[in-house]
Design goal:
mainly alpha, two-stranded antiparallel sheet, single chain
């Protein structure tokens, strides 16, 4: 196993060593998938200078470690499951309101039996029907299934009945592959981020459906067919009782699960496949980071091609079947991109990965240490200035622990509209960005001169009064100046 501590940050997993705990035969199932999590948990709890025997007295026992690692992986998935269940309940709330709205409209408006689709100058997509099937409005359609929004793209594409179970199978391809790769690669960070994004997208989809009733893209008649007599009767007779909807979601109606209507904004199939395709691409990006460039580009290009192709197929069938409006599909893709590349979400996920790792407490620097750093920096800058250009530039002495970023954000090329600009530097396959807050930057700049600090404050929009002068190391230097 490659073992180089020199290019590891303090927050990265510590390699196997004589003092690192390796699972025994009783935990053989953890060796392949969860080896990095185990090492991180053990070394974070015990520190680097303890022996294996110390774990019983000073750290977690083996069974406690196994339980904690299981919790680290299971809890994000559990949260996703809870948010998905809440989404399903809220979607049925939206269906409830749509059923009652359409029932009222059906009694308010009287249908003209003699009206034909060619009686109008502009053909619309609002559900013309001929002999029980949706049509594009041409060919003397017999009746009108109202209750949907006009959608020109639906009109241009026409309509074809698509088996919903096939769409579900397409949507399940990437999640299955992602779960296998995440577990085998032991990428708890990517796993947590994808699960958290899934949870947020699911709960917001449910909230949107419950807050505003968007007419079903197939119209009222197709909604009644989808719900069936049992579901339609339950929706008409039910009261707006949250517990009734929860029980119906858990147990169904007479053992039959009721599907949804008007669950439009935004497409669940689309965000599901997009999110796990992005997660799979990031895993491939991390897995191939030490590969030769040409093989890495080939691998990532293949993954991207499959992901884009599968997404195009999924979107095409969703629109062809009129399962969603185009705005639902586009909004799902945009929201997934924004959530996946969000630094706040990335920070929460990284905090969860390293949550509970106490480790050895580092002693804070004293005044002498801070002043020593300043003197050493001045000596080094003086030597560089003697060499002349291009060495006579300012520099900062950064404590190694400060290089541990608060968040690591991966931006796939599809999320960067200017990805073509990165072809020359070889980052066209995606970029990883590391987030530091103002306090971290203050720790990095405390030893610089006041002129250099002011220059960096102007460049990075920092506050000289708070981010620099209120920094603990800066205050340490100036609370008792040398005579």
């Amino acid at each position: 196993m490659h073992d180089e501590d020199s290019d590891r940050t303090p927050l990265q997993p510590v390699p196997y060593s004589a003092n690192s705990w390796e699972p025994g035969w009783r935990h053989i199932f953890l060796i392949a998938p969860f080896r990095e999590t185990m090492r991180r948990e053990y070394n974070g709890t015990m520190g680097d200078d303890h022996t294996i025997d110390d774990k019983v007295e000073g750290g977690r026992k083996q069974w406690q470690m196994v339980l904690w690692v299981f919790t680290k992986w299971a809890l994000p998935m559990f949260v996703t499951g809870c948010c998905t269940f809440a989404c399903m309940v809220l979607l049925h709330v939206g269906t409830y309101y749509y059923v009652h709205e359409m029932h009222m409209l059906a009694h308010l408006f009287k249908r003209n039996e003699h009206m034909q689709s060619d009686d109008f100058n502009v053909t619309l997509s609002i559900g013309w029907r001929e002999e029980g099937n949706l049509t594009d409005g041409h060919g003397r359609a017999k009746s009108l299934s109202f209750g949907s929004l006009n959608h020109p793209i639906h009109l241009a594409m026409g309509f074809s009945q698509v088996d919903i179970s096939m769409l579900d199978k397409i949507a399940a391809c990437f999640p299955v592959i992602f779960v296998l790769m995440a577990v085998l690669m032991d990428e708890l960070g990517v796993w947590t981020k994808v699960m958290f994004c899934n949870a947020l997208l699911a709960i917001w989809k449910g909230l949107f459906a419950a807050m505003t009733t968007v007419p079903d893209s197939k119209g009222w008649h197709e909604c009644t067919v989808r719900l069936g007599d049992t579901g339609l009767r339950w929706m008409m007779e039910a009261k707006m009782d949250p517990m009734a909807f929860i029980k119906m979601e858990l147990f169904g109606v007479n053992g039959v699960h009721i599907r949804w209507c008007a669950d439009m904004m935004f497409s669940g199939h689309t965000y599901f496949t997009t999110l796990y395709a992005l997660g799979l691409y990031e895993l491939a990006y991390l897995f191939t980071r030490e590969w030769d460039k040409k093989y890495r580009v080939l691998c990532l290009g293949l993954v991207a091609l499959i992901a884009i192709g599968e997404q195009v197929v999924e979107v095409y069938f969703v629109l062809l079947n009129r399962f969603h409006y185009t705005m639902d599909v586009v909004m799902a893709i945009l929201l997934t991109f924004l959530f996946f590349t969000n630094s706040a979400i990335a920070e929460v996920c990284k905090r969860w990965v390293y949550f509970g790792l106490g480790g050895k407490k580092r002693k804070r620097w004293g005044k002498e240490m801070a002043r020593w750093v300043v003197r050493k920096r001045e000596e080094l800058v003086g030597e560089l200035k003697k060499k002349g250009p291009p060495y006579d530039t300012g520099m900062a002495m950064i404590p190694f622990k400060e290089l541990g970023a608060d968040a690591d954000v991966f931006v796939p090329p599809c999320c960067n509209p200017c990805c073509c600009l990165h072809i020359k530097d070889g980052t066209f396959a995606g970029t990883r960005h590391h987030v530091y807050d103002d306090e971290d930057l203050g720790d990095m700049l405390f030893a610089c001169t006041s002129v250099e600090q002011q220059q960096m404050c102007d460049h990075m929009r920092l506050s000289m009064s708070y981010d620099i002068k209120q920094n603990k190391n800066f205050k340490l230097l100036h609370q008792d100046p040398e005579p």
